[in-house]
Amino acid sequence: MPEKDYIKEVRALLEKRPGEHRAFVHTYGCQQNFSDGEKLEGLLEQMGYTIADTDENAEFVIFNTCAIRENAEKRVFGNVGILKKAHSENPDMIIAVCGCMVQQEHIAEKFRQSYPFVDIVFGTHAATRLPELVYKHMTVKKRLFDIGEGEGCMAEHLPVHRDNPLKANLPIMHGCDNFCTYCVVPLVRGREKSRLPENIIAEAKEIVAAGYKEITLLGQNVNSYGKGLETPISFAQLLREVNAIPGDFRIKFMTSHPKDCTRELLEAIRDCEKVCHYIHLPVQSGSDDVLRRMNRRYTAEHYLDLLKMAREIVPDITVTSDIIVGFPGETEEDFKATVELSKKARWLMTYSFIYSKREGTKAALMEDQIPPEVSSRRFQELLELQTKISHEINESYVGKTTTVLFDDECDAGEGYISGRSFENLVVRVPRESAPKGFAKVYLKESLGWALDGEIIKTEE
Ligand code: 5AD
Ligand code: SF4
Predict the structure, then answer these.
(1) Which ligand 2 atom minimizes the distance to the CA of 220?
(2) 20 to 30 Å CA-CA from 260: which of 63, 79, 343, 435?
(3) The model scores a pTM over 0.85
(4) What H or E segment, with its residue span, contains residue 241?
């Protein structure tokens, strides 16, 4: 059944009701999930809903969930629970839950049993069936569960409602084949699949023509882009093709897996003037034993060699990382190895996480899970070290100039606004001096977490 019919049907039903029909998509987790959320918003708009940025007076609320850590899941249950009252007071209100969490059977079951006011539950592969689910719910008033197979947000030509006026997400692949032993992503998102380069380029051209100034190419592991496509193409080649699109915009990408990060990719970053000098290269741990048990397929030494090569090829490149502390069996020695690696790697910043046990993963079955107080102490120690390193790096940029993209979205408090530089530095300037778009900025002073800047010249 072509879904367009359902879009029209829902639209017709909504038109019979007076007033505006507000919909809010509450997205949790990673950029990939945000990108899916923007597609759900695109579909909702076509159905006749107005996209709101809070759930206040919303007639339709979708929780687009993340399963990566237990905390994210707890927040979803809490936030869904808060809407119970609003739902009971408005017979037209629909609450839906979708995304990675509900892809896990025990979670879908919990919504079925304990959250009777949740009307629709749909999995990551069922997103294109949203209009059909909404129509059926509106007409039959039944609860619907659809965790079945399908293309989901991987489907080409879905409408997109982009949340940021200047920055656009562009997924280039879906799923993950790496099976890091702690990670639930391959279990809930399925196998890695690359989009066709021609579709990506066409979408990138549309994004540029619409006036966006930044494109972020997204995938769980963009470095392995192209695997399985009929005409082989590497991620580095794709970067060069996106870079060749005429226009005033810049390109970012995430996430990169160190095992697939190549000289070819680093040379493409060097050669492509629109590609930001920044790479997110999650290391996860500095201990070779932990890395082996995480199934990461590289050593700390290999990682440091990669950083050395990256800095030789692109001297001003900045690097950020993800780190997990408290992985099962992580000894004090293992943790010290992570501390030592942090000192050597000198990341601009890190996203550190306390290991969270995920049902269905190999690590969940490992013995010697680390007590929370030990993990918290390690987390804190690492945070303090990284804060010091980040401050030193920011300090080293004082007196330099760079290009920053300001989008009016990042309020930096007290009349300031912040943007990201070409090297991913956070740069703060007085709000009234900032343009919407690119600006050349003189970096006056380090604030530790960011740099205080002064606009030199605005590029329109
Ligand atoms: N526990 C803690 N952190 C995790 N990550 C992935 N799975 C887990 C888990 N089970 C982190 C990794 C990954 C980032 C997106 O989330 O560091 O790079
Ligand atoms: Fe998870 Fe590893 Fe895939 Fe990243 S690369 S999504 S951490 S399995």
Answers:
(1) 6
(2) 343
(3) yes
(4) helix 235-243
